[in-house]
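Practice problem: LysR family transcriptional regulator
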Amino acid sequence: MTLLTYQVFKTVADQGSFRKAADILGLTPSAISHTISAMESELGFSVLNRSKSGVTLTNYGEHLLPYVNAVLNSDESLWQAIAEFNGLKQGKVKVGCFSSICTNWLPSILHSFQNEYPGISIEVFQGTYDDVIYWLKNGVVDLGFLSVSSAKDIPIEPLYKDPLLCVVPKGTPKREPEEYMGIDEMRNHQFVTQRESTDADIQNFLKENDLNIQSNYHVVDDLSTVALVEHGFGICIMPAITMNDIPYQVDCYPVKPDAYRIIGIAAMNKEFMAPAVRTMYNHVLEQYQQEEWRKG
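Answer key — structure tokens:
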């Protein structure tokens, strides 16, 4: 099989359509179909299910895709290394991130990096923590922003300590005058919660402090969560960075005991990064890693 075969397979898998893959690769649908058929014949098993609604990966195809991604990423790394030997900074970096990083950090990162390295392109994938973990492990992205607690077995470099806040409807009376929200006072409120894959750090905070809440609202995105809080459906816990660009009228209090999520940049194999990926990785460290971890 050739690199073109691998590229065709990956593109069809990503797009779920022979025609869409053909448009992206500049080939005809029949050429795409022939390439996949030849690949399946050589492998001895089917990698795609075909139907009128499109194509999906077979079980064999799902297991094969990470290896195909690894081959394509290795080829990209080779050409980036050749460009580096020739004094050029070229290539592509694929970055996975969650919502609040996408809205708060990423625009600045993209601007500063592309001003310094115009020959390196960046492809961005936004999703939940679980999405970023899957993308990293399956070679879909080169680098991923995660919280340290969500990364688990994925190597991650800590960057920033992000305080957790208790968010309540504007003007909500407080039982105590202090400028924070304690656990006992939180117990008196209904909560709006997000799915655990969306922000595991918040779920950890609730569990660690025995806040066994019963919530009727299980949402995914930050805006929906805070919108429900604004309209009086409950309170929520949110990282401080997330609240930077929330337009709703709410009050925010530091939580007691103090709690944080630690944001980091993750990569599966730091020792074997492609030159462009390593350049991006170091750029993020220089721009966002706090002094406490630089010293460490």
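Discussion: DSSP finds 13 helices and twelve strands in the chain. Students who identified this feature from the tokens alone can consider the problem solved.
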